[in-house]
Q: What sequence folds into this?
């Protein structure tokens, strides 16, 4: 549940974190559409399956 300040506004840090997550999801969806989701975006090597399972927004191998 979202934290609120004394004046009822959502915590800015929480909003920023949600926006970052949403940007990551949108980027992953774009990679799915392009057929590059399972590929390291720098080296073009396949992403490690276990790493991708634990971090579905990954864009590079660890």
A:
């Amino acid at each position: 549940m979202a934290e609120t300040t004394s004046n009822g506004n959502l915590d800015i840090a929480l909003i920023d974190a949600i926006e970052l997550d949403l940007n990551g999801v949108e980027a992953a969806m774009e990679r799915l559409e392009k057929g590059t989701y399972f590929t390291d975006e720098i080296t073009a090597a396949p992403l490690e399956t276990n790493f991708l399972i634990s971090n579905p927004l990954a864009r590079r191998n660890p």
User: Anything to note?
Assistant: The helical segments are 12-34, 49-54. Residues 12-54 form one domain. Residues 12-34 form the longest helix (23 residues).
